[in-house]
Amino acid sequence: MQIKKFMVCASVLMLVSSASMAGQAADKENNEIAKSKTDSQENIAAKEEKKAPIVIEAEKLSFSEETGDVFAEGNVVVKQNTDVISTDFMRGNNKTTEVWIDGKATLQQPGTELVGTGTHYNYTTRIGNMNNVKGLVGKEHISSNNLEFYPEKYIAHDSTATKCPAIVPDYHMSADRIEIWPGEKMVAYNAKFWIKNVVIYSMPKYQTSLKKGESKSAFPSIGYHSGDGLTISQHLEYPIEDRLSAFADLDYYSQHGLKPSFGLTSKQKGYSLKLYQSNEENGDDEWIKKEAELLFTLDPIKMGKVTGYFTASNGKWKEGNISGWRQDYNLYFKRNTIQLSKKLTLDVGAGYERRYYGYDNSSNNIWRFNTKLTARPNDRLETWVGYAYNDQSGTSVYEYDKIDSDRELKTGFMYKVDKMNSVGVKIDYEIDAGKLKDLDYTWRRNLHCWEADITYREKRSQVNVKLSTIAW
């Protein structure tokens, strides 16, 4: 029976994806052939990049074949592959593939745009430096007295960083040195965290992920919950070595006191490990204490238009008088968003999860399917309708992770009234029970680089307020 269910899930994904499910290369330590093939491809790509010509465009251009010296003036643009430098006057050398710019210059690379003076850059090694820098690396707006360029990272000295795009940001981080691996992580040394002109805290070393969906704000979020009272949350992360970091989530509730979470994260090539202890609350106001848990997360694997996700965990959970070890194995496949039209998109996913509870030696096999249709008829309105299906062989001993309904319908909308205000409604409907689970009304207020959400949950008679930095 389980095999048939798995085939149904896989068939749905295959029908909507039209993607070939190519086999993934094995780990390089166990498959030398795959390693050799990959290395060859990388070497070819590196050679092609190195051989790519340097193109210089300018109103006035002079060149010495003997020395290789180049002088360019007026709307100067220097290009090689995806690297572009623009300025008014430049001197360089074609033989050493170097450029020097005393005045203002703009350096553009994928996801990066930096403006500064006193620029030196080598197109072959992709190493250089720039003074008095301001610009954008990913979503981070940075400034630096001196910035060094390397093939895979930037090092900014006497620098600031913020996600707030304002000329005078509401919040920012300053540091003696900031190292940025675009799309990977950012590490700051002797970091200070500012709200306006006030330092709220400092750390000798600070790290944050720059991966999509993993980044957490270095600044506190403040809120109110009818059941929890006033809440203040702060995330901290300290790098111990290159791939190992310690973290803490300091969550304070006026009704419950301090509920901290802390642990270690090891990010390796292809996967990550997380050993931690936490106090967590779900959307139904149910709490769990994870006295210790080890979480394994495999990096997402792309298979054509489908992405696979896998996690495995083993931890000691405690909820009231119920305490025991819990194991979880979760495999999920998600198809790339399908663009049905310019204004309509479809998301589809399916997976399998197995949970084992040591408290009573029970288990639960869960087959799930999710789909969501989203419409954006204009730049003000977004509406959606989603369906979630869970086929369970058992149930949970903990209220915290119990699935209340096997089939749920979720719908709602968010409407942007003006530049500063949005309103929305969310509806959760339990199909099997034939009842409305939740009806939530939200007012969202833009506060420059902060965002405030005020939500009234009618079915629960709750008011929730959250103030946090905007996730640009």
TrEMBL record:
Keywords: Signal. Gene3D superfamilies: Lipopolysaccharide (LPS) transport protein A like domain. Residues 1-25 form the signal peptide. Residues 26-44 have a biased composition (Basic and acidic residues). It holds the Pfam family LptC. It comes from the Bacteria. Residues 25-44 are annotated as: Disordered. InterPro entries: LipoPS_assembly_LptC-rel, LptD. The keyword Signal applies. GO terms for cellular component: cell outer membrane; transporter complex. This is OstA family protein. It comes from Pelosinus fermentans JBW45. The lineage of its organism: Bacteria, Bacillati, Bacillota, Negativicutes, Selenomonadales.
